[in-house]
Every structure is written in C-alpha cells, then in structure tokens.
Design brief:
Shape: globular
Number of helices: 10
Order of helices and strands: EHEHEHEHEHEHHHHH
Strand content: 5-15%
CATH architecture of the largest domain: 3-Layer(aba) Sandwich
Distance between the termini: 31 Å
Strand order of the largest sheet: 2-1-3-4-5-6
Helix content: 40-55%
CATH superfamily of the largest domain: Response regulator
C-alpha cells in the first residue's frame, strides 16, 4: 500500500517509515502538520494517511475532515497517543477509517492497517466496543435549524480562524487584537447560534456548509 505519514515528531516518522518499509509498504510522503498533510494527499493520492491528532497549525481532526470530504478514496487512520473517548468519537465522525493507539504492538498494528486496506474499520476490540456503545445511545432531540446567516462579521472572522487551525483563545485574541474574554464571548455566540457544543463541531459545520473556504484553497 502507498502510505502518507502525518506527524510532527521527526523521530517517530523515521521509526514508522522503517517499520512500514520492513513490511513492503511504500511511504510516498511525510507531513509535519495537518495543512501539509491535506496538500500532500491531494498531490500524491495515497491509499492510507496515518494521521497524528496533536500537530501544530491545522490539527489532525481538521485535516481528517478535509481529506475525507474531498478525497473519500483516501483512507485516514488516526495513529495517536491520545486515547480519549471523545477524540475517538470525533475522529470517526470526521471520516477516519481507523483509530490506532501508538502503544500497539507491531503485529496488531499491521493486522489493522491491512484491514483498512480491505475496506474494513481499523479499531482494536476495546475501541470498537466503546464506539458501538456511543452510537447505540438513544438519539437526542433535534435542535432548532442552524442558521449560518445569523453570525456577525466578527463572528465569521473568528470562524475563519478556527477553520484555519487557530483554536486557542490566546492565539485568537492575538490575531484579532482583542482580549481572551472577548474571544470567549464570540465563540460562545457562534456555538449558541449554530446550536453546536464545541469548536470541533463548529469547524466541521462550517466546512460542510461552505461557510469558509478550506485552508489551501483560498
């Protein structure tokens, strides 16, 4: 399989490249952050992207959403040290075909990667069980219709920065020239107006509804 590695740690990329090569998988490219991963996926059209979540700039979840929406034939497998349930659920909702802890042994790792190559989900039994429990929960009552036009110009500016991967209050405040409390006020308004619960959902909603031009396409 042709594989693209996206991880900001050089030593980990080097180790993973050697490991993949030992099993006759071709590493076609390496990215150090999410935006670069999206650009390389467009250019190289790999079979699988091994995507870290915690990267500078555009993070792994945002990059996964962009790749899955634009290139559904490219399978994204999250490979991360973050084993939080919320990250697992968001990664799968973002279009990831697998979610693998970096603590996996090589035999299980390659077994799951090959499963993804066959079109099967790449999940350990433990994570698959958690995912089934999450999606088996009764659906919540549908909120009122979301209205993208309800956002002010300033809120849309905040939204554009969130989609660009600038998600911390401190960085947003610096870019906008306002206080962090003002940033929190704008973000809270965006969440309330779109009937969403967190910044990850806001970014996904904005991309799905064409409210913001995806990074790299401006």
């Amino acid at each position: 399989m042709r594989i693209l590695i996206a991880d900001d740690h050089t030593l980990f990329r080097d180790s993973l490249r050697a490991l993949m090569a030992s099993h006759d998988h071709e590493i076609v490219g390496e990215a150090r952050e999410g935006r670069e991963a999206v650009e390389l996926a467009r250019l190289l059209q790999p079979d699988i992207v091994l995507m870290d979540l915690a990267m500078p700039g555009l993070d792994g979840l945002a990059a996964t959403r962009l790749i899955s929406a634009e290139m559904p034939q490219v399978k994204v497998v999250v490979l991360t040290a973050l084993e939080e349930d919320a990250k697992l659920f968001e990664a799968i909702k973002s279009g990831a075909q697998g979610y693998l802890p970096k603590t996996l042994g090589s035999r299980e790792f390659f077994s799951l990667i090959e499963a993804v190559g066959r079109g099967e989900p790449g999940l350990t039994p433990l994570l698959a069980g958690k995912l089934l429990q999450e999606f088996a929960r009764p659906p919540q009552p549908a909120p009122e219709p979301q209205d993208p036009d309800a956002l002010t110009d300033r809120e849309r500016e905040v939204l554009e920065l969130l989609v660009a991967g600038i998600t911390s209050n401190r960085k947003l405040a610096h870019r906008l020239g306002v206080t962090e409390n003002t940033v929190k006020f704008h973000v809270r308004n965006i969440l309330d107006k779109l009937h969403l619960h967190n910044r990850t959902q806001v970014v996904g909603f904005a991309l799905r509804h064409g409210m913001v031009v995806p990074p790299g396409e401006a």
